Amino acid sequence: MEYVTLNNGVQMPILGYGVYQIPDQDECEKCVLDAISVGYRSIDTAQAYRNEEAVGRAIKKSGVPREEFFITTKVWISNAGYEKAKASIEESLRKLQLDYLDLLLIHQPFNDYYGTYRAMEEYYKAGKIRAIGVSNFYPDRYIDLVQFSEVVPAVNQVETHVFNQQAKAHEIMKKYNTQIESWGPFAEGRNDLFTNATLQEIGNQYNKSTAQVALRFLIQRGVVVIPKTVNKDRMEQNLNVFDFQLTAQDMEKITALDTEQSAFFSHYDPQTVEFLTDYGKKGLE
Ligand SMILES: NC(=O)c1ccc[n+]([C@@H]2O[C@H](COP(=O)([O-])OP(=O)(O)OC[C@H]3O[C@@H](n4cnc5c(N)ncnc54)[C@H](OP(=O)(O)O)[C@@H]3O)[C@@H](O)[C@H]2O)c1
Questions:
Q1: Which of 17, 20, 40, 49 is catalytic?
Q2: Which domain holds residue 143?
Q3: Domain count across the chain
Q4: 96 and 56 in contact (C-beta within 8 Å)?
Q5: Annotated catalytic, 49?
Q6: Which of 2, 115, 134, 165 has the fewest Cβ atoms within 10 angstroms?
């Protein structure tokens, strides 16, 4: 495994396992156990995925020492604000059966995320969270939070894949010393990513799949990736991306696939904001 060093010196695996859209507790527990058995140590969950308990059980059952793991969760919109965020962090720790988190992110830049961040800074200073950061904070909100917070976010997890490469946002994160992390490294298969001709052609040179080329491209750009799959063979495949190197020419060809547009939704679109905030207002129960 390769690691990135976060702005506070903490080492984070550059490749981890994401558990979004595995809401079934038994399936999620099995998937995380499979992922751990093939070598994943970084797991990305969230309060909103409703599977923190399953992730916690898998970590316990695996028998792997706690310090080998890098566990991330995220505070949901309905838990925003100083007091609610604190209570939700306690609940996440309880569900995950952990004494500390490796990384805690604000899931979405809505509701009282300043209050949330103050609570996270407290937990960070108390040693209960090793690194704190944000997700879906695009340059406007990201710069604002950086300018008025004591702790610079260690990580910003944003939609990043070959069709939406986030070059501009990445530059701004570098300027303020925040690590970019990709969500949806395969764009969840949108735009026919898994049969893309450019990725296929490049993969054929190295005997690698389109998925492996898509991940390798991000890793060589210094982007942390957390691909999701429920399939154990694919878990192994997605992890097996450290034994080949894309050339400058390969990188250039893949860079040309960038549409600079989301494959899902834009955080600048009022309808998206309404959808996410309405969902956030409902709460998680
Ligand atoms: N912060 C946020 O707002 C946010 C949003 C979305 C996601 N995330 C995080 O990012 C993680 C990854 O993103 P994602 O789950 O949205 O999507 P993704 O990783 O881009 O794509 C997952 C899809 O790709 C398929 N797949 C995986 N490996 C494959 C392979 N080697 N060959 C062919 N198909 C493959 C999976 O199918 P099977 O499962 O059937 O194999 C699944 O349908 C999430 O799990 C979550 O932890 C965060």
A1: 49
A2: 3-281
A3: 1
A4: yes
A5: yes
A6: 2
Per-residue pLDDT reduced to its tens digit, 171-221: 999 999 999 999 999 999 999 999 999 999 999 999 999 999 999 999 999
**Distance from the CA of 19 to the center of ligand 1, in angstroms?**
8
Pocket of ligand 1 (CB under 6 A): 18-21, 44, 107, 135-136, 157, 183-189, 194, 209, 211, 226-231, 234, 237-238
| Inter-CA distances, 285 with 50, 51, 99, 193, Å | 10, 13, 24, 35
Residues 28-48: what's their mean pLDDT? 98
Average pLDDT, the chain: 97
The CA distance from 237 to 15, in Å, is: 12
Q: Which atom of ligand 1 is nearest to the CA of 44?
A: 47
CATH number at 219 reads: 3.20.20.100
Residue partners of 201: CB distance under 8 A and separation at least 6: none
| Separation of alpha carbons 166 and 160, rounded Å | 6
pLDDT digits (tens, 9 = 90+) for 63-79: 999 999 999 999 999 99
Q: What pLDDT is attached to residue 201?
A: 98
